[in-house]
């Protein structure tokens, strides 16, 4: 199918159209589903829908996050409605990827600050670490620089006040306010427990006396800029550098994914317009602690901000990673990449 046709089909299915209801009208489980979701806002429980590449054409990406009769019934109805032009995968439960594992370079104290380094907020009685994605400048104040990462890495899922301390390395890796303070929470996009989220993003305002390298990405080279969202359908190879798994290589397996449910302390939050990535070879693309990593294409242009993942799915059985499109992130925060 053409890209526009798949996107239109996805929107139709997310609306749970009458034609789809009719196609499986004999299924009691679907009737229950239909009645239960009649008043809900555009969602199919347990299934995310997006777009995946199929040679020169495209297919509907169907991502099952739950098992059971209801999801199976819905998947078969979707397959029939799409005339078989689907790529079905079970991806299981997804969760935010700030967390608890350990390559050592990115977990150490880094001055100048580096893309991919360990970073976190400071919470009494709680230690954590995520990843410093890259450096950004506020559009209204270009001289005012910040560290881009996730809300759940330095804003504690909306729980921290603007001005709260940010340390490098993260507290899980030994960071302390007395020795690791590099900035403070400057801005975050609130996560919504109900409704739709598009980004999990925050910036830590960088203190003037902290040295940093705004461009170097592992041993890949220097960040060159931002890729246009229209390039996503044509991309194959992508990279990231993160606190836990360091530098990894992957490929985009789906984009424009809607109804992706991710487990947070706030609950299971819905995200739309997301990017799905799997690792190449026998490695996972990410793991807990890689939240906030910047994802780049083979020209080292920023394409996404990593925020979640799971340990199921992927052709190598190492799980899948999910990212916000970088254009959405930068526009939401009203910042640009600092190069």
What's the gist of this structure?
Helix content is 18%, strand content 36%.
Describe it.
The protein has eight helices and 24 strands. It starts with a helix and ends with a strand. 18% of the residues lie in helices and 36% in strands. Strand 2 (57-64), helix 4 and strand 3 form a beta-alpha-beta unit. It has 339 residues and is an alpha+beta fold. An eight-stranded antiparallel beta sheet has the order 6-5-9-10-12-8-7-24. Strands 16-17-20-23-22-21 form a six-stranded antiparallel beta barrel. A two-stranded antiparallel ribbon has the order 13-14. It has helices spanning 3-14, 18-23, 28-36, 69-81, 104-107, 151-154, 177-180, 326-333, and strands at residues 47-54, 57-64, 86-90, 94-96, 118-121, 130-131, 134-138, 145-149, 165-167, 181-188, 196-197, 202-206, 216-217, 221-222, 225-226, 237-242, 246-258, 260-264, 267-271, 274-279, 294-297, 301-310, 320-325, 335-337. The chain is globular.
Distinctive features:
339 residues, alpha+beta, eight-stranded antiparallel β-sheet, six-stranded antiparallel barrel, 24 strands, globular
Structural class: alpha+beta
Oligomeric nature of the chains: single chain
Mean pLDDT comes to 86
Give helix % range. Answer: 10-25%
Strand arrangement, major sheet: 6-5-9-10-12-8-7-24
Characterize the main sheet.
Answer: 8 strands, antiparallel
- How many strands appear in the DSSP assignment? 24
User: Distance N terminus to C terminus?
Assistant: 38 Å
* Unreliable residue runs: 17-42
Report the β-strand fraction as a percent range: 35-45%
Based on CA atoms alone, the radius of gyration comes out at 20 Å
Question: What does the overall shape look like?
Answer: globular
> With helices defined by DSSP (H or I, 4 residues minimum), what is the helix count?
8
């Amino acid at each position: 199918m053409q890209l526009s046709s798949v996107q239109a089909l996805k929107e139709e299915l997310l609306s749970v159209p009458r034609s789809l209801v009719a196609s499986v009208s004999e299924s009691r489980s679907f009737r229950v589903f239909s009645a239960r979701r009649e008043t809900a806002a555009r969602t199919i429980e347990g299934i995310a829908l997006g777009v995946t590449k199929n040679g020169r054409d495209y297919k509907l990406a169907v991502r099952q996050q739950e098992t059971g009769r209801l999801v199976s019934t819905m998947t078969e109805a979707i397959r029939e409605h799409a005339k078989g032009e689907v790529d079905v995968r079970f991806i299981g439960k997804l969760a935010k990827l700030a967390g608890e594992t350990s390559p050592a370079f990115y977990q150490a104290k880094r001055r100048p600050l580096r893309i991919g380094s360990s970073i976190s907020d400071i919470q009494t009685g709680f230690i954590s670490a995520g990843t410093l994605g890259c450096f950004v400048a506020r559009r209204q104040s270009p001289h005012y620089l910040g560290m881009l990462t996730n809300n759940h890495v330095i804003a504690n899922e909306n729980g921290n006040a603007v001005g709260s301390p940010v340390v490098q390395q993260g507290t899980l890796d030994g960071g302390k306010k007395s020795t690791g303070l590099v900035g403070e929470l400057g801005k975050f996009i609130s996560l919504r427990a109900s409704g739709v989220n598009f980004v999990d993003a925050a910036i830590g305002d960088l203190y003037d006396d902290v040295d940093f390298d705004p461009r170097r990405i592992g041993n890949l080279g220097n960040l060159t800029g931002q890729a246009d969202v229209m390039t996503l359908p044509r991309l194959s190879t992508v990279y990231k550098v993160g606190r836990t798994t360091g530098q990894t290589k992957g490929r985009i397996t789906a984009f424009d994914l809607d109804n992706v449910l991710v487990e947070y302390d706030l609950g299971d939050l819905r995200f739309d317009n997301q990017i799905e990535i799997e690792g190449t070879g026998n490695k996972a693309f990410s793991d807990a602690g890689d939240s906030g990593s910047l994802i780049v294409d083979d020209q080292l242009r920023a394409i996404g901000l990593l925020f979640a993942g799971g340990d199921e799915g992927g052709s190598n059985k190492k799980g899948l990673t999910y990212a916000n499109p970088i254009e959405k992130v930068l526009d939401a925060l009203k910042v640009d990449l600092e190069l």
